[in-house]
């Protein structure tokens, strides 16, 4: 049993981060901290159609929620507890890089096994996934044009950590994706 681990799943909206995180959490006995569980206390206060971008000031408020969550994980959560965090992080966004570093620092403060995983998905599949009705309930973006544009012009956050891995989940189901990530976590844990 792997304990005191922080798994960081990063990928574009629609990649399947939360679906994979839930499946992985059941195997690792970990708590899932979905990006939208951090965003939604603020997003829920705004009128938005999940296609139109939020006003930029929203992100300062979301940052406060994230800081509180990470501080709680670092200082109040049980040492043996494991967490899986999801994040739609972009290589060209310095704030996304700062979020990654904040998560990595949290793992370091806890002396946790830290395993960042980049999830990639090809454009056509990403567009198909992003319009899934399940996303509406979580206030997630459902903009197929934005998903297509991101797949063509942007890159998922690159992570220069010794435990980092990249997994293309385009043709994988959730069980296959979870199994591949779990194998990588086990390798990282054995090298600890």
How is this fold's topology laid out?
Layout: E1 5-11, H1 17-28, E2 31-33, H2 35-43, H3 58-75, E3 83-87, H4 94-110, E4 113-120, H5 123-130, H6 134-137, H7 144-153, E5 165-168, H8 174-190
Parallel strand pairs: 1-3, 1-4, 2-3, 4-5
Helix pairs in contact: 1-8, 2-3, 3-4, 5-7
Entry summary:
By secondary structure, this protein is α/β, with parallel strands linked by helices. The protein contains 8 helices and 5 strands.
Kindly describe this structure.
The chain is of the alpha/beta class and 192 residues long. 49% of the residues lie in helices and 14% in strands. It has helices spanning 17-28, 35-43, 58-75, 94-110, 123-130, 134-137, 144-153, 174-190; strands at residues 5-11, 31-33, 83-87, 113-120, 165-168. Strands 2-3-1-4-5 form a 5-stranded parallel beta sheet, with helices on both faces. The longest helix is centred in the middle third of the chain and has 18 residues, at 58-75. It is globular and about 45 Å long.
Q: Percent of residues in helical segments?
A: 40-55%
List SSEs in N-to-C order.
Answer: EHEHHEHEHHHEH
Distance between the termini: 14 Å
Please count the helical segments: 8
Q: What is the class in the CATH system? A: Alpha Beta
The tally of beta strands, per DSSP, is 5
Whole-number total of structural domains: 1
Mean pLDDT: 91
Look up the CATH topology: Rossmann fold
- Please state how the strands of the largest beta sheet are arranged side by side: 2-3-1-4-5
Radius of gyration: 16 Å
Proportion of beta-strand residues: 5-15%
CATH homologous superfamily assignment? P-loop containing nucleotide triphosphate hydrolases
Q: Which ranges are low-confidence, i.e. pLDDT below 50, for 5 or more consecutive residues? A: none
Rough outline: globular
Name the structural class. Answer: alpha/beta
Please name the CATH architecture. 3-Layer(aba) Sandwich
* Main beta-sheet strand count, sense and barrel state: 5 strands, parallel
């Amino acid at each position: 049993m792997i304990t005191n681990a922080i798994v960081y799943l990063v990928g574009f909206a629609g990649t399947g981060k939360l679906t994979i995180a839930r499946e992985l959490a059941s195997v690792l006995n970990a708590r899932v901290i979905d990006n939208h569980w951090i965003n939604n206390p603020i997003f829920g206060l705004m009128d938005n159609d999940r296609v139109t971008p939020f006003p930029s000031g929203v992100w300062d408020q979301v940052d406060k929620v994230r800081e509180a969550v990470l501080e709680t994980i670092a200082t109040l959560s049980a040492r043996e507890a494991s967490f899986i965090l999801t994040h739609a992080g972009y290589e060209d966004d310095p704030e996304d890089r700062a979020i990654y570093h904040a998560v990595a620092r949290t793992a370091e403060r806890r002396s946790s096994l830290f395993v960042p995983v980049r999830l990639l998905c090809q454009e056509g599949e990403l567009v198909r996934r992003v319009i899934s009705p399940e996303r509406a309930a979580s206030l997630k973006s459902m903009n197929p044009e934005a998903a297509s544009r991101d797949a063509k012009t942007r890159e998922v956050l690159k992570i220069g950590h010794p435990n980092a891995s990249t997994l293309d989940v385009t043709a994988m189901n959730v069980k296959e994706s979870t199994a591949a990530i779990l194998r990588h976590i086990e390798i990282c844990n054995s090298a600890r």
